[in-house]
Amino acid sequence: MNELIASSARDIVERLRRKEITSADLIGAATARIEEVDGAVNAVPTLCVERARKHATQTADGAEGSAAPNLCGIPILVKDLVDVAGVRTTYGSPIFKDHVPERSNFLVERLEENGAVVLGKSNTPEWGAGANTFNEVFGKTVNPWNTALTCGGSSGGSAVALATGMAWLATGSDLGGSLRIPAAFCSVVGLRPSSGRVPHGPLLEPFSPLWIDGPMARDVADLGLFFDAMCGLDPRDPLTFERPSERFFDAATTPSAPTRVAFSADLGITPVDGEVIGICSAAVQKFAKLGTDLGMVCPDFSAAHDAFQTLRAASFATNMDALLSQYRDQLKPEVIGNIELGLGLNAADIGKAERQRAALCAAMAVFYEDHDLLVTPCVAVSPFPVEQRYIEEINGKKLSNYIEWLSMTYAITLTGCPALSLPCGFTKSGLPVGLQLVGKPRGEAALLRHAAALEHELGLSNAPIDPKQG
After folding, report:
1. What is the H or E stretch that residue 106 is in?
2. Which residues, including other chains, have CB under 8 Å from residue 460's CB and lie 6 or more apart?
3. Is 102 exposed, middle or buried (0-12, 13-18, 19+ CB in 10 A)?
4. Which tens digit of pLDDT belongs to each residue from 341-362?
5. Distance from the first to the final alpha carbon of the chain
6. Mean pLDDT score of the chain
7. What whole-number distance in Å separates Cα of residue 416 and Cα of residue 399?
8. Distance CA 83, CA 268 (A)
9. Which pLDDT tens digit goes with each residue over 4-31?
10. What is the pLDDT of residue 56?
């Protein structure tokens, strides 16, 4: 494997800053790696190499010394739900299979302003719906640890690209776990930040805190580096606010143990595979070596299923009602069901869900008065066959709908708290398992410090892998 591919993003950026390598070198290394391994996993369906080379030249011209953009020309991948000007962007939908936007999403503009070079787009399920990455435009993306299995979703292409060395950094987005779940399934790191940390848009519901863009990387330090390049106020996004004075990269590279952590195997709301619980429980015990006080309590999440289903459906109706009217025959059944569920809601339904969410946020505020982290398994199961659209049953319990198996992550979405998916071990069959670390509202810096401390104790390799046939 090319030594550039195996290097960390932070080392690459430092070498770019010192002008030991160029962005063009990295574009060449990344495209060669994509050509070598993507045929086995189908994670990067769209490349924009000439655009990247042109932008790399412009970035290098302005990247002198300490004033250099903080990413200094490192190539990145952008999830195919996010517009990049002049680059085919499909949203995983046959309706937009030939769509080329004229302008970029606010996030892409921010990243390019801060020295990122977009090399291509990573695969996603249709409209990001469902945590299994497949669509009718590009097909299925598979898990590099076992190519017969799913990589999760909806940021599946990004997670696979990171795990296999096709990218040093990649964007993800998250509603009910779309960033955290593929990170867990592919043994990389993903962060769902607090609402307003990362600008995104233009949107049809700019005041919603549900849809969040965030960073994905191979380890916590690289995640902090990438997060710094995303954050800050954008007047076009009404929820954004100024970045803190402390760099998130500094937090991510100064590990510290939390004082008190609570672990919940199931949040009281879902069955969880026993092997997953065992691996996650063992990982949490590593905090005890650092002097952390461990407990087994958590707030009451019993209303999470109903609240999330309602608020998510309302969001789908807001964003996609017009598409349903015009293109119903080109939408997958799950998307149609989501929109129709939203259109069938009334004010009382939405009001109840908002009250449930408010109560949960209040309970979390009380919880964090004497805890630093809530820790859970990230996903209730390990990766499953890619042909299986979703999980219908766990531990003999039939699930009520196609997203209930995501409840460990979507319950946390409702709280507004930042949540990080950290690799924590492997099943007996060699499949990755991820731990979900949930921090205080707007507490990303402390969350990164605590995650870095646990990452060090776990001692897992973050080196890129070659795809393994299932």
Report:
1. helix 106-113
2. 187, 423, 424, 425
3. exposed
4. 999 999 999 999 999 999 999 9
5. 22
6. 96
7. 25
8. 38
9. 999 999 999 999 999 999 999 999 999 9
10. 93
Contacts of 253 (CB under 8 A, 6+ apart): 221, 224, 452
Answer yes or no: is pLDDT of 393 > 50: yes
What span, in angstroms and rounded, lies between the C-alpha atoms of 53 and 118? 9
Which two three-digit tokens encode residue 285?
Answer: 């015990």
CA distance 444 to 215: 12
Average pLDDT of the segment spanning 186-211: 97
Structure tokens at 395: 């531990």
Of 465, 432, 162, residue with least CA distance to 275:
432
Chain mean position to CA 55: 25
285-299 pLDDT tens trace: 999 999 999 999 999
Q: How do 134-135 and 139-140 pair as beta strands?
A: antiparallel
Amino acid (1-letter code) at residue 63: A
Question: Residue 222 is inside which H or E element, if any?
Answer: helix 220-230
Residues in the chain: 470
Q: At 435, is the secondary structure helix, strand, or coil? A: strand
In this prediction the pTM is 0.98
What are φ and ψ of residue 73, in 5° steps? Answer: 105, 15
Interior angle at CA 113, CA 109 and CA 118, nearest 5: 65
C-beta separation of 80 from 46 below 8 A: yes
Domains of the chain: 3-458 (3.90.1300.10)
Question: What residues are annotated to the active site?
Answer: 79, 154, 178
Q: How far is CA 222 from the centre of its chain?
A: 14
pLDDT score of 1: 74
Residue type, 102: E
Among all chains, which residue has been given the structure tokens 């949540």?
A: 419
The answer to whether residue 62 scores a pLDDT higher than 90 is: no
Structure token pair of residue 252: 């991510």
